[in-house]
Amino acid sequence: MNQLESLKQYTVVVADTGDIEAIAKHRPQDATTNPSLLYQAAQKPEYRRLVDSALESASAAPGRQAMAEAFMDALFVAFGREILKVVPGRVSTEVDANLSFDTESTLAKARKLIGLYEQSGVSRERILIKIASTWEGIKAAEILECEGIHCNLTLLFSFAQAVACAEAHVTLISPFVGRIYDWYKKERGAEIAPDQDPGVASVTRIYNYYKKYGYKTQVMGASFRNTNQIVRLAGSDLLTISPDLLAKLEQTEGALERQLDPAAAHASPGDHLHLDEKTFRWMHNEDAMATEKLAEGIRKFNADSRKLEQYALAKVESAVGR
Predict the structure, then answer these.
(1) Residue 317: what pLDDT?
(2) Is the pLDDT of residue 322 over 70?
(3) Is residue 130 among the annotated active site residues?
(4) How far is residue 221's CA from residue 153's CA, in Å, rounded to a whole number?
(5) I want to staple 92 with a disulfide (CB 3.0 to 4.6 A). Which of 128, 136, 181, 248 is the partner?
(6) pLDDT: is 39 or 4 the higher one?
(7) How far apart are CA 3 and CA 247, in angstroms?
(8) Cβ 83 vs Cβ 31: under 8 Å
């Protein structure tokens, strides 16, 4: 047995890529995408038909900017639909990062994406709408969940974000293990021992809290720097892993021991919290790492979205020029 096979005994494995061939190779349960991954995949000749299909579906939009936005939405759905042909579970499709502080616009974009999926014959049960874990994003997710639109709250760094997501009854959260590790490594100016990894510790704390207090929200560790971080989170509800790390796990023989377990979580320390907006913002603000990484993450995700938007505009200009 290799480590990937062993991990799948305890944890749902999710592929963190837009490359459909890589997803099919590693046979994960679910997959996640984002504008950067989609931009990279769209450049590959084997996905030209998906790009052309998205362009055709956007051609009726009024004006170049509207066409570009429609093209991006259609591209997300086209790739998502193809991914769902090779995974048995769900795909996460991301709301633009520039809507991170706008509840109403996040709602509108999520409903539009779900509508496009449903028009193409894909049930909303197989889609997770990926939203940044700001207060505004969490409130949008709470409303969407009531409408049967399931959400994946991303860019999650603080315990306050995790508590607020659970209280909003979101389907899934994605705490960023590697980015947390990066911040502390830079802050300390030195490597951190594997058994003291702050990213692993953060996910462990959240997992234990959720299981101890009976929350249904699932924990999906994300953003890994090495396989050791993955191994130490065996037992998490889900883990989303890049193709290169999936390959390393697959190439390494040996069984993994379960590290996170609901039974052990019940004995973990920590009081039950309830957060209103004021308490959430203060508690999150007190975590320097989380405030810095959330702001940085939104900026980077927005930059990736704008890169995809420029690609979309170029495609639209080319189509209109013809």
Answers:
(1) 82
(2) no
(3) yes
(4) 11
(5) 128
(6) 4
(7) 10
(8) yes
